[in-house]
Amino acid sequence: MIRKIYLDPYIFIGISLLAMVGVLILFSASEGNGTIVIKQSIYVMLGLLLFLLVSQPDPDIYRRFSPLILFGTLILVFIAYFFGPEINGARRWIRLFGFSFQPSELLKISLPLFLGSFLFNKKLPINAKQTTISIFFILACFLSVYIQPDLGTGLLIAASGFLVLFLAGLSWVFIGVTIGAILIFSPFIWNNLLEPFQRERIWTLFNPESDPYGSGWNIIQSKIAIGSGGLFGKGYGEGSQTHLNFLPETQTDFIFSVLAEEFGFIGVLLLLILYTFVLLRTFYLAVNARDRFCRLVIGGFIFTFGFNVMINLAMVIGLIPVVGMPLPFFSRGGTSLLSIFLMFGIITSMSTHRKFIAK
Amino acid sequence: MDFHERQLERQSFTQRSLLVIAFLLIFIVVILFRTFSLQISNFIEFDKASLNNRTYSVPVQPLRGKILDRNGEIISENLATFDLVTIPRDIKDVEGFLKKIENIINLDKDEIDLYIKNFNSKAFFNRELVLKRNLTEIEIARFEVRGFEHKEAFVGKRFRRVSRYDEIFSHVLGYTGSARENNFDEQNRFRSNSWKDAVFSYANGLIEGKAGLEKTYNKSLTGIFGIKQFEVDARGRLVKELSYTPPINGENILTTLDIDAQKVAANQLGKRKGSIVAVDVETGGILAIYSYPTFSVNKMANGISQLDYDDLINDPDKPFFDRSVAGRYPPASTIKPLVGIHALNRGQISWTTKINDPGFFELPEDGRIFRSWGEIAHGLINLNQALIRSSNTYFFNLAYNSGINELADDIEKFGFGSTVCVDCILEDEGLVPRPQWKMNNLNFGWFKGDTVNIGVGQGYISATPIQLAHYTVTLANKGMKKPLFLNNSLSEKIPSSEIELENFNQRDWELLHKAMESVVESDYGTARRIRDKKDFPIAAKTGTGEIISLDSREEYERIREDQGLRDHAIIIAFAPAEKPKYAVTVIIENGESGGSVAGPVALSMLKELLKE
Questions:
Q1: Parent domain of A196
Q2: Which of A273, A356, B86, B555 is the one with CA 20 to 30 A from B389?
Q3: CATH superfamily to which B322-601 belongs
Q4: CA B581 → CA B262, B555, B575, distances in Å?
Q5: Which residues from A are below 8 Å from B234, CB to CB?
Q6: Contact A241 B17 (CB under 8 A)
Q7: Do A227 and B12 touch (CB under 8 A)?
Q8: Can you list the alpha helix ranges (DSSP code H) found in A96-171?
Q9: Helix (H, G, I), strand (E, B), or coil: what is residue B236?
Q10: pTM for this entry
Q11: Beta B248-249 vs B223-224: how paired, if at all?
């Protein structure tokens, strides 16, 4: 018998709204494709269930099991890499009973959990040894995804780890030195580590018209879709850029452009308000979390989530290069959706379970 | 970890997370700002781009205007032909479809191969594809009977540009040929790639006038393209038709030409090389303008075999060459009235001045002999007699006593040395020679003999038949110059101008007309051959254009063997003599005698034009 349901109503309402709007937009973006939408709706239901489920246990359980969770996730990532099917040149999926599952998405949860747990009882600010160990894990997770290859998710996972470290009090000296080093080595990174297509994407950003039918196509068409939406949009299901296939990747990376085209600036404004609301509420929960573990994990989660959203939006409106990053709650994809619900479930668990103050 | 430490830690966390959240909030504001800029500030630009993306306008070809004769009779028009058009996207099984069609309509291998080759791309883009062109009535009937079985195919009407008079109007009418899309003004209204999907009214696609009236008036004949606007997807596939603005067909052109007169010209000239030009004296409108050899305009417009085309191009008689406007001929004795006017106007002679014609003219400077045609001695004759008999000696004398520049000035006043037709194409200017011209082109000084030759329209001077026609009109109008034209709508717009001749008055003109009338009427007249066949008074002047200059009659008899070296027969005439209405110029290459060869042709033309 359940004595109490652990639930933060603001979070619940916020993410439910986002998920519903997400399905609505996906319906339009997929040309009313029933299969896709029903599948996504099932994921939303499953997600909400999962959300409620993981909200209930005391967060200490997550802390204790975090090494196991991270280890398990990494195993799945490697299984996908070595045994999974190759789709579009990448090995990041596991197929099970007709459902595709992308374990790397889970690293966005496992890694902050593990780092939060690792730093839980260390003396703060963290010392060099702990920093080194943490960075080792971050790099391990990043590389396991980077080789798939999936730079976008990899960077997001790395960001989630570094955010936890940063919130745990990573020394400014270290941060300064690291940023300095990246700047110094950036020509080297540009020349040696980036693939030609990645370099092209960056060039394209600054001059999309240079190759309107090649690499510039996506961003030009996305800007046209958004711009032509105007104040009120063309109406639901009426976006010509979307429905005549001028806009690429409408169900994944460029789904925001669909919303912007059909619902206009008003729609964009409402969406951003909704995201901001969830962001600020979670931020409030992080600041008031019961212990360091919860604080770090909630912070790591929500800021990664925030960056994920912002990077996607900045990408489709042509502010940063196209990196291939889905929009949380909107882009088609079950694992992504489930992991977001999972994440908010853990956040709820962490913010609703009070702890007796020891001593 | 004590309470204080815990507080410090919390503080640090709060500070750092505030930093991150602030960063994110700024990010959100930037995104909002950027979206605002796209959706609100630059809305018009992107809205246009989006419309441009999703719509695709293809040109719809208008029909060319008809070309009509002065009575509104059709010379050139558009004839409907029928093609078997299919919609490949609706055809699931090409082989089966072709088999079904072959049961009804015979298809040859080329047609099938071409069809199969283009099938897939047309199906993908949802465009039409023509299976067979130019269906016969029987084929149409056979297809229509079973039409209900073939929703994926239909009989489409396509036009061809056709002249009802395949060969007689060829040079003046011109012909159409396939055109490049950038020859059309409409190119700005359509995307350059949309022309490949244009809706064509003509079986042979985009056409434009390549010669003659079809070219001169191509723009107004063409009309204005209509627009069919489609919605397209990103791959260029047609989704649906959005709007249709019908084309505006080209304007008909009412010409000054007269079909009957042109027919007579063609009949009269027959298989003889040459040119006939007939003009309305009152307006300057060209009634007939015929050049032989000619060619088939319908073949030129609607497909001519390479073999036939090569034959035309390589024909030594140059069928494409429009002798009427570009053939350079010596005006020969037809220039004599002008030389007479020149001499009278400059006070060199009067109508009574008599000059002895011993049958030749001796150039005082070097004793060189200039012979008269036929070497007949006319004795002491005045200008009137000299014109009637076409005395060379008389006009050698007049030219001898003239300055070349003054003489050339007066000749040019009558339109020689310049174009005279407002809307003819490829008109030649002919040549009125001057010392400067000779020095520049032949690197030789001017001799008095050169001037003497001009007196009888020989030597360096050359004129086109249309210039001679224009000159005839001017003579008929007693010095009132009227530019010639073909488009009837120009008749009111073209100003005529009076040639300035201070000492040549109305009486002089009347005497000149009388003299020219006597060319036909007089027993001595060079055109007396036609005197008894006419039923109205005619004023005329004959000419015999020498191709090479010779010293004696005997020599000519020798070179006569070569038909191509025989003299050209020329006549200029206008009628009725007392109140001229029509002017005619006839040039028959190697026809030898202006009076007896060209004369009857001119008479037939005038008879046709003057018949009630």
A1: 65-325
A2: B555
A3: DD-peptidase/beta-lactamase superfamily (3.40.710.10)
A4: 17, 41, 6
A5: 221, 244-246
A6: no
A7: no
A8: 104-118, 128-146, 151-167
A9: coil
A10: 0.70
A11: antiparallel
CA A305, A306, A311, A314: dihedral to nearest 10 degrees? 150
Average pLDDT of chain B is 89
CB contact under 8 A, A240 and B39: no
Non-local (6+) Cβ contacts of A311 within 8 A are A156, A320, A323, A325
CA angle B570/B575/B578 to nearest 5° reads 130
Q: Quick check: helix, strand or coil at residue A91?
A: coil
Please report which helix (H) or strand (E) contains residue A100, including its range: strand A99-101
Instruction: Please tell me the distance in Å from A84's CA to the nearest CA on chain B.
Output: 33
Q: Superfamily assignment of B57-254 in CATH?
A: Penicillin-binding protein 2a (Domain 2) (3.90.1310.10)
Single-letter amino acid, residue A155 = L
User: CB-based contact (8 Å) between B11 and chain A?
Assistant: no
pLDDT score, position A210: 60
Where are chain B's structural domains?
57-254, 322-601
* pLDDT tens-digit series, residues A209-230: 665 666 678 888 899 999 999 9
Q: How many domains does chain A have?
A: 1
Q: Do A227 and B42 touch (CB under 8 A)?
A: yes
Tell me the shortest Cα–Cα distance from A244 to chain B, in angstroms. Answer: 4
Residue A93 in domain:
yes
Neighbours of A207 (CB within 10 A): 9
Question: A with B: how many residue pairs have Cβ under 8 Å apart?
Answer: 131
pLDDT at B562: 73
The answer to whether the CB atoms of B39 and A280 lie below 8 A apart is no
Q: Return the pLDDT at A319.
A: 87
List chain B residues with CB under 8 Å of A169.
Answer: 9, 12-13, 16
Cβ–Cβ gap A314/B9 under 8 Å:
no
Does residue A313 lie in a domain region? yes
Whether residues A280 and B54 touch (CB distance < 8 A) is answered with no
Residues B109-147: tens digit of each pLDDT? 888 888 888 888 888 887 888 888 888 888 888 888 876
Instruction: Compute the residue count for chain A.
Output: 359
Residue pLDDT, tens place only, A99-152 = 778 899 999 999 999 999 998 888 777 788 888 999 999 999 999 998 888 888
Question: Which of B25, B39, B43 should be substituted to probe chain A, the one whose Cβ sees the most A Cβ atoms within 10 Å?
Answer: B39
B126 contact residues in A (CB cutoff 8 A):
none
Question: Which pLDDT tens digit goes with each residue over A40-64?
Answer: 999 999 999 999 999 999 999 999 9
Q: Is the residue at A332 inside a domain?
A: no
Lowest mean pLDDT among B182-196, B400-414, B464-478: B182-196
Chain B 235-294, residues with CB within 8 Å of chain A CB atoms: 235, 239
Contact flag A230-B47 (C-beta cutoff 8 Å):
yes
- The span from the CA of A97 to the CA of A76, in Å, is 16
Cα-based angle A235, A241, A246 (whole degrees, multiple of 5): 160
The strand pairing partners of B67, in sequence order, are B76, B253
Taking the CA atoms of B30, B31, B36 and B37 in sequence, report the sign of the dihedral they define.
Answer: positive
